[in-house]
Each structure stands twice: as structure tokens, then as C-alpha cells.
Amino acid sequence: MAHWQDQTCVRFEIHDPSVSSLWQHRLKFIKSDGCYSYLGLQSKIGFQDVSIGKGCTRLGTVSHEIGHALGFWHEQSRPDRDEFVTVNFANIIQDKMNAFRKHTTDDVMTNVPYDYNSVMHYGAYGFGIDAKVPTLIPKDPLSMGEIGQRLGLSYLDVKLANFMYECDSHCPGASSCHSGFRDMNCKCRCPESHKGDYCEVVALNFPADRVTLTSRNGEVSSPNFDGSTNYTLDTSFMTYIKGNPDEQIRLKFDALDMEPFDTSSKKCLDYINIRAGGNLYYEGTDFCGNTLPPEIIADEIILSFHSDETNTNKGFHGTYTREKISALGLESYVIPDSSLTASSEFNADHGAKRGRLNLARVGDLRGGWNPMDNDANPWIQVDLLDLYRIISVATQGRQDLDQWVNSYKLAWSTDGTTFRTVQDIPGPGADKIFIGNVDRNTIMTNTLPVSQVCRYFRLMPVSWYKHISVRMEIYGYGEGPVTALGLESYVIPDSSLTASSEFNADHGAKRGRLNLARVGNLRGGWNPMDNDANPWIQVDLLDLYRIISVATQGRQDFDQWVNSYKLAWSTDGTTFRTVQDIPGPGADKIFIGNVDRNTIMTNTLPVSQVCRYFRLMPVSWYKHISVRMEIYGEGLVTV
């Protein structure tokens, strides 16, 4: 009660039957089963129960129940809630449905913006049939961990209460608080983003506790990370790395130095929490100590950093890149009907070939795949007809009837006989359960915790609404257009470029990037020493990639270029194999090079090669060896 009184003009007094009072309405706090309260004034005379049962004594929980008594509905009951959250009705306990019912503006005041941080908002997993599946999914992924907070009233909770109870009605003149509001003391209350007597000044030092990154590549780190300075105590922030629908994000950590795992409490006290892809709406995984997190590959990644009030260390650092992925062809029919099979089919009109994303009913052909009712182990399978790296899966429910899959597992195979179920991270041996759909047509995309190379791919329903029905698309790396691996864009760092020799530092290997121009004394290409009998320039791709082609140019600032060259590749940086011609293994392939400074000449390898290290070895040249280059290939490959 004191919390409400401190923030608003609402006042409470302890009821004393012996003392006369004008206040006839009473709130009676009882210790019953659970936490509950009636909404608003129930009777002008008499008692109105507010239950503060076992487990309900937190400040925010009591404030929540008092909020109901003061006339506050649940935040997710607002009429505009569908713009901000998705309600997974299929996973809500039946007798709790009313708490998720949407009300009209006649019942719910919407004088303030929708508030994920409201003490009146349910948490993501409240009253779920399956406790591991959300009942509320924010449209803003960063708010997944924010909804359901029970620490106390939010800024907008206080603003709404001051409006409802006209707390500034005694103040002279109209309010001039700009982005804030006038409180019971006739002073402006400002949001964190503004300051000043009238909230008229943008707070330039407003803490950036939420950052969304959308650049093609970049860095993530703890505050003030430089490898030597410790992070500050009692700090929290979130970073959201977001790509486009046709991309994946690859995040690698190169430093982690945080307070070690606390064995007494059995948890990390300072940590970085990672939620990614299909895990975006789960609690995520905490990392602390000095063991680097694994490489993260997902379409979306949220990093939450937290430090407590005691020890501090160096923190963490990582880099990320965004890479193109593509639909492999269910919706577009690149994958033929013959590639879709299933454990069973309700009948031919509900067959596996109906399991294509966005497919609609046509006559008797239904809008989704449906197995037989008695299928104890249902699955739908796609033969991709070749090996592909699978990154993510998108699903929908049945287009012409309320049937969909709430959750599912995935499995993969290279031979169509032995299948492996996609595992959760951490915890190999624990099958990953992916969140499915909540209606007919909304597309739900899940990213695999670790991408898989396979030919055959299965979706296995775990839970469903009314009857199993699904439409799907698979995303990954196919044999389609290749991408530049990063010499021109500097995704590949200077440290990855080495050479047999360098004429001098200004002609170094790091100058061997496609389209690089001279800057001051730094020349427009790599040049080896004149007496280098076996010249080469080498690129460390830092991981395994499938190399498809190479593009070259001559020196940008002088008439020097390579007329022909060989290529070599290695997985370990020690043993190199020269690319061979076809036909005739044993005959090194000689590629045609350049005839001028800037024209780009692209050559495709006779057979693509999986490697980490890649060399270009000049065979003939004009005046002096000089080259700029780019390497093209497909995404990261596991062999």
C-alpha cells in the first residue's frame, strides 16, 4: 500500500471500527489459496477480499493485486494487445482463459502506451499447459524477459493511476510536462529518456540498456571492454542482433572473463545470457567464467549481460556477420511432390504434398498435411535430393480449418535410413522441442541450435490443436548463387592475409583485396619480392567453407597484373593441394588471369573445394606480379 501511496494520490487507512470514517469501502486482505483480487469497486459499503496467499508476498505481486482493486485490468487484456503480443490460447489452462480475454475501451483505459513492463502484465509462461511453451509471445523479442516483472509499479503504471484518479486536479493551470506527466505534487514526472523541470530535455546520457544491431557485421561486448579494463558492477543491458528474413547471423566469441560459476547457489552471478532463433522465447543459457560460448548461428540473437554488486572481471567480446540463406523450394515447387513423404496420410487429399508453406485448399485438395488419427509416431519428410546445410524451418497451420501443430521435433539424415533428432543446447541427448503455431496462417520460423548438413529432413509433431496439420518451408544453403566471403568487405580481417613475401609493407598481402585503391603510400595491390621463386598469397577464412570461384584484378595504381595462376587449398594450413584440371587428375589447373589493371576476371573451380586456407600462386604476369582478389563460396561447412 505504501508503494502505491508513494507513487500516486491513492490513499489507504487502516480500518478501525471504533473510529468514524467517511470511507465506507473496505479492502480485506486475507491469506487464501493463491493471489487474487476483484476488479475495481465491488460495493460502496462492506468488505472486498484481496488474497495474499502463499508465494504472493513479493512487492510486485501485492502491488498487482491492489492494482486490480483500484480498477486495473491485466495489461494483456487491452483492446490493442494483438499489436504487441501473440496469445497462445492452445497452451492456456482452460479455467484461466478469462485472464487472457481482450476487453474493449469501455472497460480498459488506454491513455498510456502498451506497457511490457507493467506490473499488471502476465509473464510469458503464465498458466501454461506445457510449462516450457509460452502463453504470451511479445512482438518485441527484447521484451520476452521483461513481461511479468513483479518488482513494482512501472513508470506507465504510475502515469495511468495518476490519470485515473486525477491526481493533479488540484494543480493550477494546464499540465506542460511534454513527454512526462504532472503528479500529485504538481511536479513533472519524466520518463528515463527525458529530464528537466518540464521533461523538455532529451537525456543524452540515458543508459543504452537496449541496443538493436542491424549492420552487416559488427562487434558485441560487455561495457568498456578492451581486454584490460573491468566491467562495472551492478550493470544490465540487452543486445538484439536482427537480420532480414532471408539471412542468418553467425556470432563468434573470442573472449570471456567473468565471475566463475557459484557452486553454493549453483548459478552464474555475473553472466551473459544467450537466446537465439528457436530459443528466442525461452529463458536462454547463461555463460560465465572463462569457457567461450559455442558459435551461435540463428536468424535472431539476444544477448543479456548482467553483473552483480560484488566481483568484476574483464567481460566478453565477440563478432558477428549476417549471411544470406534461401528457401530450398517447398513453396516454390523447386522440391517436387515426389520428395514429400509422411508416416501416414489421412487420405490423398491430405497428403504430404499438401505440406507446402502458403499452400491453399483447391477443391478437395486440403490446405495442409494431415496424418491418420491412429498414427502414434507422425512425421512429414522432405528429400532435398542433395546435401544442403539446414539453418531454419518455417511452419503454418492448416489453411482451411482450425488445425495446427503447437510444438515439434526435427530430425535429419544423409542416407534416408539413419535419422538423428536435433538436440538442444546445452545438453546433448535432450531433443530440442520447437515452438509451433497458434493459428492457421501466421508463419512461425525456428532456427536450429546448430545447423545440419543433410539430404533428408523430418518434422515430428509433439503437440497440436484439434488435429495435426502443417505446412512448411526449409531454409539453408543450397547450390544456388554463391556469396563473396569477405575480402572486399573486410569481413576477412587483415590478419588473415599472408604471402610468401612482400615487396615492402606498402605492397603487403593485406593490399590484395578486390577493388582496393591506393591510399597514400599504401599501394593498390599485393606485390612479392622480385627474387621470390615460388610466390603466393594466402587467405585464412577462419573456418571451413566450400570454395566455388575466385575473382582477380591487377594493380590499381600501376600497369602490373597476373596473366595466369594456380590455386591451392588446405584444411589445416600445413598440407596444401593444388586444384586439378578435369579430365586428368595430376595435372594442375592453370587459370586465365588479367589483361589490365581493373577489369575483374572470375574463374570457377572445376570441382568446389571445402577448406579453411586458400592460396593463389602466380604462373605468368605482366611487368611484375600484382593482384587483388575475392573468394566466392557457400556458407560454413561441417565435414
Automatic annotation (TrEMBL):
<keyword id="KW-0862">Zinc</keyword>
<dbReference type="InterPro" id="IPR024079">
    <property type="entry name" value="MetalloPept_cat_dom_sf"/>
</dbReference>
<dbReference type="GO" id="GO:0004222">
    <property type="term" value="F:metalloendopeptidase activity"/>
</dbReference>
<dbReference type="InterPro" id="IPR035914">
    <property type="entry name" value="Sperma_CUB_dom_sf"/>
</dbReference>
<keyword id="KW-0645">Protease</keyword>
<feature type="domain" description="F5/8 type C">
    <location>
        <begin position="323"/>
        <end position="477"/>
    </location>
</feature>
<protein>
    <recommendedName>
        <fullName>Metalloendopeptidase</fullName>
        <ecNumber>3.4.24.-</ecNumber>
    </recommendedName>
</protein>
<keyword id="KW-0482">Metalloprotease</keyword>
<feature type="domain" description="CUB">
    <location>
        <begin position="199"/>
        <end position="323"/>
    </location>
</feature>
<dbReference type="InterPro" id="IPR000421">
    <property type="entry name" value="FA58C"/>
</dbReference>
<dbReference type="Pfam" id="PF00431">
    <property type="entry name" value="CUB"/>
</dbReference>
<keyword id="KW-0378">Hydrolase</keyword>
<feature type="binding site">
    <location>
        <position position="74"/>
    </location>
    <ligand>
        <name>Zn(2+)</name>
    </ligand>
</feature>
<feature type="binding site">
    <location>
        <position position="68"/>
    </location>
    <ligand>
        <name>Zn(2+)</name>
    </ligand>
</feature>
<dbReference type="GO" id="GO:0006508">
    <property type="term" value="P:proteolysis"/>
</dbReference>
<dbReference type="InterPro" id="IPR008979">
    <property type="entry name" value="Galactose-bd-like_sf"/>
</dbReference>
<feature type="active site">
    <location>
        <position position="65"/>
    </location>
</feature>
<dbReference type="GO" id="GO:0008270">
    <property type="term" value="F:zinc ion binding"/>
</dbReference>
<feature type="binding site">
    <location>
        <position position="64"/>
    </location>
    <ligand>
        <name>Zn(2+)</name>
    </ligand>
</feature>
<dbReference type="InterPro" id="IPR006026">
    <property type="entry name" value="Peptidase_Metallo"/>
</dbReference>
<keyword id="KW-0479">Metal-binding</keyword>
<dbReference type="Pfam" id="PF00754">
    <property type="entry name" value="F5_F8_type_C"/>
</dbReference>
<dbReference type="InterPro" id="IPR001506">
    <property type="entry name" value="Peptidase_M12A"/>
</dbReference>
<dbReference type="InterPro" id="IPR034035">
    <property type="entry name" value="Astacin-like_dom"/>
</dbReference>
<feature type="domain" description="F5/8 type C">
    <location>
        <begin position="480"/>
        <end position="634"/>
    </location>
</feature>
<dbReference type="InterPro" id="IPR000859">
    <property type="entry name" value="CUB_dom"/>
</dbReference>
<dbReference type="Pfam" id="PF01400">
    <property type="entry name" value="Astacin"/>
</dbReference>
<keyword id="KW-1015">Disulfide bond</keyword>
<dbReference type="InterPro" id="IPR000742">
    <property type="entry name" value="EGF"/>
</dbReference>
<feature type="domain" description="Peptidase M12A">
    <location>
        <begin position="1"/>
        <end position="168"/>
    </location>
</feature>
